[in-house]
Amino acid sequence: MFHRILIANRGEIAVRIIRACRELGIETVAVYSDADASAMHVRLADRAERIGPAAARDSYLSAGAIIDAARRSGAEAVHPGYGFLAENAAFAAACRDASLVFVGPPPDAIAHLGSKTAARRLVAERGVPVVPGEVPAEQSDEAIAAAVARVGLPALIKPSAGGGGIGMRTVLTSESAIEQVRAARRDALAAFGDGTLYVEHLVERPRHVEIQIIGDRQGHVVHLGERECSLQRRHQKVIEESPSVAVNEALRADMGTAAIAAAQAAGYQNAGTVEFLLEQTAHGPRFYFLEMNTRLQVEHPVTEAVYGVDLVHAQIRVAAGQPLDWASGRTPRGHAIEARIYAEDPAQGFLPQAGALRLYREPRGPGIRVDSGFEEGDAVAVHYDPLIAKLIVQAEDRERAILRLRAALAAFPILGVRTNVPYLLAVVEDGAFARGDIDTTWLDRQTEALVALIAAEQPSAAGLAAASQALARAERVPYAGGTADPWTTLGAWRLGS
Amino acid sequence: MSTDVAAIGPGAWRVTIDGNATIVWTAVEDGGVWVHTDGRVHYIANEADVRRSRARSGSHDLSAPMPATVRAVLVDVGAQVHTGETVLTLEAMKMELSLRAPSDGTVTAIHCRTGDLVQAGVPLVEIT
């Protein structure tokens, strides 16, 4: 087992990995940019290494700075978390070349699965269903438009590189095909520097259901069921849950087998997620491989809750060469839901917010987990993703999990920056969500109405009465920079002199 | 209407209005105040705005945030309602919206019926 691990990330995921390392008796090395010198992940780690200025490209995305920090601190392994360098095959290879263990899949597996067209070809050869479509060898605009005609309308044109919905174009009429091809090419070149396009049949109103897998160096790959991630706003997941209301035991087994086949096709090791589109047809449900994420997912805690596992422990054990101890599979129990809490203002088009968390009190109780990189008094910086916390609830069934989520969201006061909590509450209180009657287009169709509902809410009489008292007393909740804490106001001093 | 405000911790208040208690969280910033009640957050810029809002909050008109169809009226005139209680459900853009009582009170008037198409901002239910 490792003696010391460097965590090449920040925020809640760095905190979560530091905690897992501590449980396993492994020392932790945090890295930080100038903007994060006093961030929670730095406060919690055993050691901390500065890796550069605030801009991510000069710090958390700087492979060289991170590998130098690992060498300086004597770390034996690097955990990349998610985002930043987590799916960067060159970084994984650079770690290997520096004799550091990358806690993730081998560089080749990341590279194979990083190209959507290569991944599609690879898994299709193993019999994993893919969305009907074509990857034209001839890449002229006319050839792509001809492929659209062969695939049939409605069709989707997608860039081979990248993700997040960038450059994706829907073709509804044959006359508009060539125009959409040109637009997709422009976007793909601008965003990814690679204009390679492919064409898929458009699956209308699908669900997004993904399978968690993990593999060890001995060649075992197991799956840990599905996560339903259909609640997305502009291709960003908002609420995730496990199990999915649309997946029964037989479908779970089929999707699990397909996910394992996809992982084995790429020589996969460590934790990963195979994303599928799930379509309800007259002949029952059909699923199609979408892509594989070669890292720990943001929403991994819902799987941990339902399967009773710790995925970060497992990632570290597998990276150290130990075999998986879940070879015979795990049995899911109950229901878990995660809501992502962001510093963003729904009333201003979800504009990211920055500022001090003047009051921040996490909810507590049975079945409530909060993964966060902030404590009261910390500031949300403008430089990074505005995720404040993930609220994960777990209960014996979906209905009770929704009750718990609603109550926990309402009991999570965050003051000082605008957050999406009121929006999350409006989603959770919606009848369609309660019925599980959702698809990947649902939230985008409802957001305008949900935001109008929030905007119409006036402060309650009780809130106004308390506001008046608070102002009268000018009571100030302690926050960074404004406290009279002796540890920050005392100068240098010495014990025992 | 009797209102009692008790400080119960840093930034935490128990507000009791006519016997009904609500926990409220506040943080003062730049002369204004952030207020959290049951997951809903408002920032009120200054004391004068608090007073104006309080003067209005004695009596509330509930209205639709957008053009909508009334799905159900869940109260009658004279009913006692509590903060957060759903008074009316609307349907707009194929979605169900709930209008909730912003404070405890009595329903003094209802200006719509199930099935009505209503415009944004027009009072549907009055609560005093």
Please provide a written account of the structure.
The complex is a heterodimer of chains A (497) and B (128). In chain A, helix 4 runs antiparallel to helix 5 and helix 13 (421-428) packs across helix 15 (442-455). Chain A has helices spanning 11-23, 40-44, 63-73, 89-97, 107-114, 116-125, 141-151, 177-192, 249-265, 300-307, 311-319, 398-410, 421-428, 431-435, 442-455, 461-473, 486-489, and strands at residues 4-7, 27-33, 47-52, 77-79, 101-102, 133-134, 155-159, 169-171, 197-201, 207-215, 221-233, 236-242, 270-281, 284-293, 335-342, 344-345, 351-352, 355-356, 359-360, 368-372, 379-380, 387-395, 414-415. In chain A, the strands form 6 sheets. Chain A has an 8-stranded antiparallel sheet, with helices on both faces. A 5-stranded parallel sheet of chain A has the order 3-2-1-4-5. In chain A, a hairpin with a 2-residue loop joins strand 11 and strand 12. Chain A has 3 domains: 4-103, Rossmann fold, CATH 3.40.50.20; 132-201, ATP-grasp fold, A domain (Dna Ligase, domain 1), CATH 3.30.1490.20; 207-455, D-amino Acid Aminotransferase, Chain A, domain 1, CATH 3.30.470.20. Chain A has 17 helices and 23 strands. Chain B has 2 domains: 3-57, no CATH class; 60-127, RNA polymerase II/Efflux pump adaptor protein, barrel-sandwich hybrid domain (OB fold (Dihydrolipoamide Acetyltransferase, E2P)), CATH 2.40.50.100. In chain B, the strands form 3 sheets. A 5-stranded antiparallel sheet of chain B has the order 1-2-3-4-5. In chain B, strands 6-13-11-8 form a 4-stranded antiparallel sheet, with no helix packed on it. In chain B, a hairpin with a 2-residue loop joins strand 3 (20-29) and strand 4. The radius of gyration of chain B is 16 Å and the shape is globular. The chains are: A alpha+beta (497), B mainly beta (128). The interface between A and B is large, with 50 and 50 residues.
